[in-house]
Amino acid sequence: MNWLHPANDGCVLTVKVTPRANKSEIVSADSDWLRVRLKASPVDGKANIELTALFARTFNVSKSSVEILTGDTSRIKRIKLRGVSAEAVMAQITS
Asked: Whose CA is closest to 73, among 44, 31, 93, 50?
């Protein structure tokens, strides 16, 4: 899987975001990215705020532990999760 990479203090994920969905959720894992739907629109950074909140809730970490590394204005983003191992992400996604 090319979308998940371990890091020193957590892991880095590549996600593809679809804004303006009915609800915010992690949909599926493709070979190149994790598909995520967000209820928020991509205006004034609202989708990025919702993405950060979704990952914080899903992986039970603070919002400050979720950092958007690249793709602030793109649908494809790289996200760093501090304090969450790549194995924990896989376990959560596949359950």
From this structure: 44
